[in-house]
Structure prediction request, 100 residues.
Amino acid sequence: MNRVTEMKQLGEEMALDLKKRLELLKEIQEYTRQLLTRYHRDRKEMYQQLQQMLEDDHKQRAEFLNKFLLESHKENAQAYDTWQKTLQELNRIREQACSA
Prediction:
């Protein structure tokens, strides 16, 4: 009988340990689910922040490029005008030299 009692007690301990392990496993699964949920939420927020940063950066670069191109165009126009005036002056001087 003593052996039967010991085996019964051992079986009850094993069943109790199994229940504790199952509860621990459920807690670990829930914790993992919470971590994954938080990870996906944080990842989505970071994606949105990065997307906004990229859009802002793109907008700033486009504004800078437009400003740069406008200034370049103005400088080119001024250089062209200066060149035309120089050619006109040279032609005037050549005409004066030829008629003299």
Observations:
- Helices lie at 2-99.
- The mean pLDDT is 95.
